[in-house]
Amino acid sequence: MAKVLLIEDDEDIRLNVAEILTLVNHEVFVATNGREGVDLAKKEHPDIIVSDVMMPLIDGFGVLHVLKKDPATSTIPFIFLTSKSEACNLREAMRLGANDYIIKPFEGSDLLNALETRLKDVSVQPVKELNPNTADISHSLDKAATDPMQELLNNCESAEYGKKQIIYKEGSTPRYLYFIKSGKVRTYKSHEDGKDLVMNLYGKNDFVGYAPLLEGVFQVETAETMEDTELILIPKKDFEKLVEQYPEVTKKFMGLLARNLLEKEEQLLGAAYNTLRKKVASALVSLGRKYKIEQEQNYIIIMSRDELASIAGTATESLIRTLTDFKHERLIDMKNGGIVIIDQHKLQQLLR
Amino acid sequence: MAKVLLIEDDEDIRLNVAEILTLVNHEVFVATNGREGVDLAKKEHPDIIVSDVMMPLIDGFGVLHVLKKDPATSTIPFIFLTSKSEACNLREAMRLGANDYIIKPFEGSDLLNALETRLKDVSVQPVKELNPNTADISHSLDKAATDPMQELLNNCESAEYGKKQIIYKEGSTPRYLYFIKSGKVRTYKSHEDGKDLVMNLYGKNDFVGYAPLLEGVFQVETAETMEDTELILIPKKDFEKLVEQYPEVTKKFMGLLARNLLEKEEQLLGAAYNTLRKKVASALVSLGRKYKIEQEQNYIIIMSRDELASIAGTATESLIRTLTDFKHERLIDMKNGGIVIIDQHKLQQLLR
DNA sequence: CGTTATTTTGATAATAGTCAATCAGGGTGG
DNA sequence: CCACCCTGATTGACTATTATCAAAATAACG
Fold first, then answer.
1. Nearest CA in chain A to B310
2. Of B197, B257, B267, which has the smallest distance from its Cβ to A258's Cβ?
3. Does B194 touch chain A (CB under 8 A)?
4. CA distance B36 to chain A (A)
C-alpha cells in the first residue's frame, strides 16, 4: 500500500516490525542505523518513516534533523519508536517536526493505527485553496459571508475515526482545527506516573484543538475518540485566515476560550480542595451536562472505570469505591457496566 | 464625607456600625427594617447603602430589587451585610446589582474599606467619552492608531490601592478591565471551607479581569492587591469598543486567554496528581518566574505562609513542613520570614 | 513591655492510594 | 456446548500522605 522506511538497530524489533508491515501489504525498506536510514530515505523517497531514537552513528533526532532540511524529504511523515525512559525528550522531537511517536513496548495495532493516521494526514495535506467566495466578502454576502465558518467547514476534508483512536498527541505540532460532525472526543494530559487527567470532553458540533492553534507551538494534550467519530479537519492556515478576516469568528473563539478558562479555574479549585466524593460527583454531573440526551431525568453513562477515574482525577479503585457508596445511597445505579444517574439533584447538592 | 444609609434590624450591630461610620465623618441614616430603608433611600438619596440581608418585612434582596427598579435610586452603590451561612445566596445578590458584601462578623476596617472602594467607583463612574481620535482610525494613524490600547490607557482614570485591598469580589458584576501601573495583584477563589486557592498572579503592565469581561456575567474570583498598587480602570464599555474596533487588540487578548488556559490546564494536572513536595516546589518556581528581578540567580520571596499555601493549594502547616524540608536539603533558605531560593535548578528538577 | 498575630512543631486522625486477590462476563477454540 | 482464558471490575488489607487540632515558640506591634 505504501512505502515505509524502517530505521531500527535492534534486530528483534526490526524483523518483528518489518513483518507486521509486510503483512498489511506495505513495501518495507529497512535500515539498521541512522546513516543508512538517511541515505535510503533520499534514494527511495518513502511515504512514511518509522525510526528508533537510540541508535549508533546517528540517532533518530539526527535523522529527523537532516531529512527536515532537505526539501525533497522534509514532507515525509516521521514516526519515532521510543522507550518510556526517553519520553522526556519527545517534546523536543515533536518540535523538530516528528509527526507521531510510539512508546515501546507496543502492539502491532498501535503501530498500524499511527501509520494509517499519519498517511491519512498527508493525503489531506495538499491544502485546497479556499473557495474564493469565502475570501471575498463583498462578492457573495448572502450565502457565504453569513457564516464563513460554515463555508469553510463545507470545504474541508473530513475523516472517520474508530473508537479509542488518537487524533493528535501531546507534543505534536498543531496542524488542524477539528470539528466534530458526529461522535465524542476527549482530551487528556498524562502525568509522569502514567495517570491521565481528562481536560475536556467534546461532542457533536464542538471544535477541538483551538487553543494551541491560537497560541502554542505544540499540542499540550492528547485527543482521543471515545466512540466512532467523524471529524472535519480544518487546516491551520485556513483557520488563521478566517480569524484574520472575520471578527465574528475571532469573537466566537474568544468566547470559547474565555468560557473554557473560567471552567478550568473552577475545576482547579475542586481538584485542590474537594474530597473524593465531590470529585466523583462532579465528574458524573459534568458528564451528564455534556452528553445527556435532552430533558431526560435519568441519564446513563457507559464508560470504563479507568476513563471515569481520569475524569475525576483519582485512582481507579477509589473511584469504584465511591461509586458503590453512591449506589448504596441510591444516587446512582449500576447495570452491566453502565452507570444510571438516579438522583441528579442530590448529586449536585454534594457539590456545594 | 458621604451620606450613608444603614439598614439593619439587630440593634447591637446597628448602633455599632452607625458609630463607626459617624466616627469617620459620614452622615448616617438608619432604618430598622426593609420598608423603612426603601422609604429613607427615596427620600434622602444617600451616596451609598449598607444593608443587612435577613430582616423582617422586606429582606435585603427585596430592598435591592425595589431600589434598582427606580431610576432615581438605581445607581446608588449597595453593600450587603451577611453572615457566613447565607453566603450561598450572594451570587444571586450580586446578580441583582449589589456592589459588594461584607461577611459578619467583620472588622470596622473591612467595612470602611468596602465603603471607600465603592464610593470611589462611583466617582470614577461618569465615564469619560473616549478621545475621538481613538475612535476614528483614519484621522490620526501615526500616533493614536499605532497603539489604541495605549491611547485608551492614557485616557482612563487610575486608582491607588494599599496593601491587601480588594479590587473586586467573586460574584460582583465586572465593570472594569484593570491595568497594573505598578504593584502586584493576585486573584483567588474561595472554597466553601474557607480555604483559598490563588488563580493568578499579576505584576506591572499586566491586565487583570479580562476573562469575565469577555464572557462571564459576573466575577468568578476575587482580586486583591499584594502591595501598594496603582491601577488604571478601563470601563467595560470602552474596552468592548476597543475590541470591537481593533483586531490587533482582540488578538492580543485572545493570546492572553489562550496562554492562560494552557497554563491552567498544566496546573490542573499538577493539582490532581502532584505530591505535596511538587506542589510547593511548583509554587516557588512560578513565583520566581513572575516576580524575579531579572537575571539574579537567588531570588527572595516575601510572603505570608498563608498566602503561599493558597498558591500551592495545600494546608498552611503542610506548606511549612515542606519548606523546612527544602531548607534542610539546601534548596532554599529562610531569613526573617523571607524565602531565599538557593538552588532554583534543583527545585525545577523536582517538578519532572 | 505586654499583647496579639504568625510561624513552627508535635501528635493524631482521616483520606485516599497501592498492591494483591477475587470475581464476573465475553469470547474462543476444542 | 463447555472448559478455558483474558480483561475489566470489584473487594480487601495495608500504607503513605497530608490535613487537622492543639500547643509552643517566635515575631510584630502599639
1. A272
2. B257
3. no
4. 35
Per-residue pLDDT of B252-282, as tens digits, reads 899 899 999 999 999 999 999 999 999 999 9
- A250 to B251: CB separation less than 8 angstroms, yes or no: yes
pLDDT attached to residue B131: 36
- Is a pLDDT exceeding 90 seen at residue A21? no
Spatial contact of B313 and B271, defined as CB atoms under 8 Å apart: yes
A74-88, B175-189, B326-340: lowest mean pLDDT where? A74-88
Highest mean pLDDT among A128-132, A234-238, B143-147: A234-238
> For chain C, which bases have at least one atom within 7 A of a protein Cβ?
6-11, 15-20, 25-26
Residue A86 has pLDDT above 60, yes or no: no
- In chain B, the residue whose alpha carbon lies closest to the alpha carbon of A199 is B265
What separation in angstroms does the CA of B253 have from each of B54, B209, B239, B256? 41, 11, 11, 5
Residue B77 sits at the chain A interface (C-beta within 8 Å): no
- Using CA atoms in the order A310, A315, A316, A317, what is the torsion angle rounded to 10 degrees? -160
Q: From CA A125, how far away is CA B132, in angstroms rounded?
A: 47
pLDDT confidence tier of residue A261, bands split at 50, 70 and 90: very high
Q: What's residue A10's pLDDT?
A: 84
Question: Which residue in A257, A274, A349 has the most chain B C-beta atoms within 10 A of its own C-beta, making it the best mutation to test that interface?
Answer: A257
Q: What is the pLDDT of residue B14?
A: 87
Rounded to the nearest angstrom, the minimum Cα separation between A288 and chain B is 21
Lowest mean pLDDT among A203-207, A215-219, B189-193: A215-219
The pLDDT of residue A323: 95
Residue A130, SS3 per DSSP: coil
Which chain B residues are within 8 Å of A273, Cβ to Cβ? 191, 193, 195, 197, 313
Q: Do A189 and B266 touch (CB under 8 A)?
A: yes
CA distances from A35 to A12, A17, A60, A82 (A): 20, 20, 10, 18
Put simply, whether A351 touches B (Cβ < 8 Å) is no
Q: How far is CA A20 from CA A29, A116, B247, in A?
A: 13, 13, 52
- What are the distances in angstroms from CA A68 to CA A14, A95, A98, A173, B246? 23, 12, 9, 14, 38
Q: Confirm or reject contact between A244 and chain B (CB < 8 A).
A: yes
Per-residue pLDDT, B95: 61
Three-state SS sequence of A208-248? ECHHHHHCCCCCCCEEEECCCEEEEEEEHHHHHHHHHHCHH
Q: For residue B199, what are the contacts with CB-CB under 8 A and spacing of at least 6?
A: A265, A268, B187, B188, B189, B221, B264
A207-221, B68-82, B112-126 — most confident range = A207-221
Picking from B196, B265, B279, B316 by the largest number of A CB atoms within 10 A of its own CB, the best residue to mutate is: B265
Three-state DSSP class for B120? helix
The mean per-residue pLDDT over the stretch A236-260 comes to: 89
Give mean pLDDT, residues A212-227: 88
A59-68, pLDDT tens digit by residue? 888 888 888 8
CA–centroid distance for B198 within its chain: 12
Contact present, B199 and A268 (Cβ < 8 Å): yes
Q: Which residue of A has its CA nearest to B247?
A: A247
Give just the sign of the alpha carbon dihedral A210, A216, A220, A222: positive
Interface A:B, Cβ pairs < 8 A: 114
Quick check: B318 contacting A, CB < 8 Å?
no
